Amino acid sequence: MNWVGRRLPRYEDPVLLRGDGRYVADLARGALAMRFVRSPVACGTIRAIEAPSGARVITADDLTGVKPLRPRLLRPDFVPIAQPVLATGRVTHVGEPIAAVIAETAAAAEDLAEQVAVEIEPGTPIVTLDQALAPGAPLVHDDAKRNTIIDTGLDAGEVDAGFAAAAEIVAFTFVSRRQSAMPLEARGALAAFDPSTGRVTLSISGQAPHLVRTAVADALGIAEAELRVIAPDVGGGFGQKVPTIPEHIVTVWAARQLRCTVAWIEDRLENLTASFHARDQRLDLRGAFAADGRFLALDADILCNVGAYGNTPVTAALEPLMAMTELPGPYDLRAYRVRTRGITTNTCPMAPYRGVSRPVITTAMERLMDTAAARLGLDPAELRRRNLISAFPYHSLTGMVQDEGSYRQAMEEALEMADLPTFRRRQQAARTEGHYLGLGFSVFAERTGYGTPTFAARKMEVTPGYERVELAMDSSGFVEARIGASPHGQGLKTTLAQLLADEIGIEPRHIRVVSGDTDRTPYGFGSFASRAAVVAGGACKLAGMKLRERLAAVAAQTLEAAASDIEINDGRAVVRGTDIAVGVPELARAAYHQSHRFPAIVETGLSAVATYDPGGTFSNACHVAIVNVDIATGGVNIERFIIVEDAGILINPTIVEGQIHGGVAQGIANALYEEVIYDEGGNILTGSLADYLVPTMAEIPDLEIHHLETITDASITGVKGVGEGGAIGAPGAVLNAIVDALRPFGVEIFEMPVTPQRILQKLQESGSLPR
Amino acid sequence: MTDKVDVAFTVNGEARTVNVEPRRTLGDALREDCGLTGTHLGCEHGICGACTVLLDDVPVRSCLMFAVQAEGTRIRTVEGLADGDRLHPLQQAFWDHHGLQCGFCTPGFLMLAVGILEREPEIGETELREALSSNLCRCTGYQNILKSVLAAAAAMRR
Lengths: 771, 158
Description:
The structure holds 2 protein chains of 2 kinds. By secondary structure, chain A is an alpha+beta fold. Chain A folds into 3 domains: about 15-125 and about 185-265, Alpha-Beta Complex (Aldehyde Oxidoreductase, domain 3), CATH 3.90.1170.50; about 355-445 and about 615-765, Aldehyde Oxidoreductase, domain 4 (2-Layer Sandwich), CATH 3.30.365.10; about 465-610, Aldehyde oxidase/xanthine dehydrogenase, molybdopterin binding domain (Aldehyde Oxidoreductase, domain 4, 2-Layer Sandwich). Chain A is built from 20 helices and 29 strands. In chain A, strand 23 and strand 24 form a beta hairpin. Chain B is an alpha+beta fold. Helices cover about 35% and strands about 15% of the residues of chain B. Chain B has a 5-stranded mixed β-sheet with strand order 2-1-5-3-4, with helices on both faces. In chain B, helix 2 (about 90-95) packs across helix 5 (about 145-155). Chain B is globular, with a radius of gyration of 15 Å. Chains A and B meet through helix 1, helix 3 and helix 18 of A and helix 1, helix 2, helix 3, helix 4 and helix 5 of B.
């Protein structure tokens, strides 16, 4: 039986559908409540903190010996910044935790927090990139000269020659405004002290429990064994829940000090203002193109506003480095000069957010391609045809090895689905009636499932990459798979159960995947970077093969046949070509209770461990958006959205499509709606979901998906990661479609989100608004 | 603030009296005082709809109501949907059509959809899309939620 490839309903679902899921806030009933007093100003000096007498209030002064968070890259051009767990002497951004209060209930804690008076002498905040880079600008951190935490680059190939030979040079500045991952469940931490062991169990809404355990133990100066970290049901993360945060450390510190159980449950205001942001970037791009459309050279200057601190352990250099390395994307580029910088400001720090930089750089590159095509009088598909990578493996100038993909084919099939000729006729007819339709597309390759070599190239002090899986078959034939990865809604448990079922030869319903508990699972890095299906999946395949061999050894002896003649399928071991068979439960029982008969498995029993650490594999896709732009309101309606996606072998196509759906919705939000807005004082104006506009069902169209399946040997399962692609490709398609719709007005758009106000402003500036 | 009052209502057919501060929201009362944590709080300011429950068969945001306002009402939450082992047609449809991922918005969407379909079993797709746009989901992109509710509507009409 082949379980891989089947649209199996998820094993995760019945519990969640019944309301029996257990998210951190659900586990926190009866716990003491912690509330953080946060900075109301963007920067300043703390003069005094006064709390009502008798109240349980924790400030930096109480946290003697607690070390700051200090994520690092091991490279000389990176400036590590220490982030105190609670603000110490000064505040650096609105929302920074200054003190924590503890009360019997959440409401009482909120009351108490409001009674804590913090006197701050405000300073002059640095909010924008221009302010941070102005000559003589005040420094957010003394160590970060010119407010720069990383400044690096690359100069590869004959860039000047490329520009000298260019028939057309396209130059523009592309701006992506700041966004929030906005998981529907905000963050949370529940720390429970166990007096019988002296240990603390920290339950978090998180994506990387093992890394959190390491960082919290480091900060508190305790052994990791003193701490158990659990990620129970997690209500989405999208990267925001990867880092270890001060709130984790303070809750554990308080639980140990007070020998109590205490919970911090983040509210939405905190989540939107004080958790993490992403995507605040400005790119100056210059592309050189030959008359026939060949992409000759690219010159880029990338600036990322990374906020006041880094994130642990990823660091704030993530966005600038990712942008530099992956900007050329799916295009064959042999001359590339780039400078990339991370600029620190008095704003909320950055964390990974689905796609990390690539939604921005892909959109910028796709605008570059469309703009070049328009200037050269070429069809935008033809221009891409001449530049898309078509020979694999492809060694990029930035050191990436792009494995077998279907870059051109994805584009051709997407355009065919869109029926371009018919659309162009419809577009013409609509224009005569004052309706402005546009079609845009976006092609990209997404690096996924990469292991330690890639992260090591980034010089991360904490170098993620491998995943380990432990399998144990019990004496009834049921398998428990303990994984270091930590899903938060993707359906990974079902996915891995399907994969394991094929490898071991039992049904997936006889496999339980255990994750998100440092006491129960091997060390692992968690779920992010479109890695879990590839990396944890690869480890599952390797471990599953070993377990099958061990079962086969037991079967061979039981059935008096050669192990090489044993086939195991759907819970039965059969001697090939015969009807001599035995059930897996009987084999398991014998292995446990008649172990003296099976010397071949004395050492391991029916268990297996495997680790997988791949170099990485690229999935790819083409997205097509067809939009209708209302020139009276600036509103954009997406009529159709098409995705042709190549993620290699699909373990569960329904789950893969769900990932694409969710990613595209976030990408559309990126393109049109969501924007964290700061005023000049560094105050956030978008602290509620009435201001930070997350799209609803009314805004997200039906999504038409077509799969391609390139078989890669860069991933032992043939699986490519797919978690982020939707978010990466969608904004470029939407922006290109809007520009296509507004071509009669000559409007160019190099920013996102493209809100109605911005479209109206562009139309007004174009001076060609019809009567 | 701390003078508590008794509030009586029924939840999923069971009579309950909770002793709460007047400022206690209905959502908090269901979660903390009734132990029904299936109702999730996503924003606590009435936008996301994760906390939607049925109050006398009408979908309401339980974060925007005080528990005392629910005195004498009949409340239904996600925990009351299934009939023993048998899932409600909406729960079954969400399972069949991958209408959920992280599951955090799911109870709110289920209760919203139950309210809509009980009132208007023949609702058309356009109206349904409009009504379901009351709630936010961050994982699914909504397409499979719409598909699930349409399938459940068909099943419930049978």
